[in-house]
Specification:
Layout: E1 21-25, E2 34-38, E3 55-58, H1 81-90
Antiparallel strand pairs: 1-2, 2-3
Bound molecules: zinc ion (ZN) (2 copies).
Length: 104
């Protein structure tokens, strides 16, 4: 089953269509980062060992503990350009790595 979020473009991390992702605002007060999970069944990122849900491409590196409390049901907008730029610079988007572990 694939998500149909309606977002355009492609994910900078896994390169799948954004339409196959869901995003959620970071629950931390005042945080503008967004969390982003890929639901593509052929995603190169393996399903996380410890999770029932999809692979997280982007996490909030400022608030990693918030991953237990995400709501992906709201408005679907992609992560801020700041997060894309940080990933381009560091190679770490704060989500799952290709083994399903959380990056730091
Ligand atoms: Zn992705
Ligand atoms: Zn945050």
């Amino acid at each position: 089953m694939s998500a149909r979020s309606g977002m355009e473009g492609f994910c900078k991390v896994c390169l799948h269509a954004n339409n196959e992702h869901y995003t959620a605002p970071c629950p931390a007060t005042g945080c503008l980062n967004r969390w982003k999970e890929c639901t593509a069944s052929n995603c190169f990122r393996e399903r996380p060992k410890s999770s029932k849900s999809a692979k997280v491409c982007f996490g909030c590196k400022d608030h990693p503990a918030c991953r237990e409390n995400l709501d992906f049901s709201g408005d679907q907008i992609d992560v801020p350009e700041k997060q894309n730029e940080d990933y381009a610079a560091t190679g770490n988007a704060g989500g799952h790595d290709d083994k399903g572990d959380w990056t730091r």
